[in-house]
Amino acid sequence: xxxxxxxxxxxxxxxxxxxxxxxxxxxxxxxxxxxxxxxxxxxxxxxxxxxxxxxxxxxxxxxxxxxxxxxxxxxxxxxxxxxxxxxxxxxxxxxxxxxxxxxxxxxxxxxxxxxxxxxxxxxxxxxxxxxxxxxxxxxxxxxxxxxxxxxxxxxxxxxxxxxxxxxxxxxxxxxxxxxxxxxxxxxxxxxxxxxxxxxxxxxxxxxxxxxxxxxxxxxxxxxxxxxxxxxxxxxxxxxxxxxxxxxxxxxxxxxxxxxxxxxxxxxxxxxxxxxxxxxxxxxxxxxxxxxxxxxxxxxxxxxxxxxxxxxxxxxxxxxxxxxxxxxxxxxxxxxxxxxxxxxxxxxxxxxxxxxxxxxxxxxxxxxxxxxxxxx
Length: 375
Known about the structure:
- This protein is α/β, with parallel strands linked by helices.
- The protein has three domains: 4-75, Orthogonal Bundle (DNA polymerase, domain 1); 90-294, Rossmann fold (3-Layer(aba) Sandwich); 320-373, Winged helix-like DNA-binding domain superfamily/Winged helix DNA-binding domain (Arc Repressor Mutant, subunit A, Orthogonal Bundle), CATH 1.10.10.
- Helices cover 43% and strands 12% of the residues.
- The protein has 17 helices and twelve strands.
- The strands form two sheets. Strands 1-2-6-5-4-3-7-8-9 form a nine-stranded mixed sheet, sandwiched between helices. The protein has a three-stranded antiparallel sheet with strand order 10-12-11.
- It is globular.
- It starts with a helix and ends with a strand.
- This is DNA protecting protein DprA.
- It comes from Hydrococcus rivularis NIES-593.
């Protein structure tokens, strides 16, 4: 029997099938192995796919053998996870567009992958002020010393300051790249790349030999946001990729924090926009640690279901649709959008069911349209 990860890899090669659509395919058929043999008519029934893409799938799979392709791919890309692998990062399973293939180099950590060790993203401009650099190093150091793993993108400026501060403090850091893992970008970060590989982890959704491309970096930012329990924007002008990461964080129901500064400082105007939009201000390290420490801890022993609602035993005599909604809500905060995606029920119906489940004492509503199951 062909292993499921071979199908994830094969599906990632089909033109026009991105992470969001692939997630729908997996939800529709249950496994990508099942979807690989589906008829054109069955494929066309997947939301957003249609007849044209169904034909592309049929044509591609006629010349692509998943098992043989996996074997060949491993020769140049030996280390990667797919959502079917147990070590695939747990928090990425919550987002609408989890990478079908996630390549890695360095030191893996199962507690990070399970979401037990909290990952905090630090992002910002490539051209920070001295104030931005100083605070980034200060925050990166204190997070490392208190057991947080720092996630960033290994770009110039804020990213590299965050990585270096964490490494110098003896902590772990993850770098999410917008290239293949065999390409160091920017090239002058070779030493930083090697230090991260030795003390942390390098990640990318792009296979070996993928060169820098302008479109890769916004996509990379969604992975930084998805991996992180919170995003810290240290300094960002009004047109900054860091604001894209912050937007992804909001979409994924992650907390966003930012460093305030004067409106006269161009590099800080994006941060002021974030504060105006509801982001928390970073005033003191200890206050930030208290806020980050209040993030609910995840259960190491519980493995998240990838794309299907978790099964639950009804505590009361609940209607089937109530059981479905309750099963889609985890003991950690779950966004309303994720409940809709995982149940397939209309949003209006889900809202009414959630209200009744709250009244029954089975779930609680949290800020930001998030819900949490009560033990």
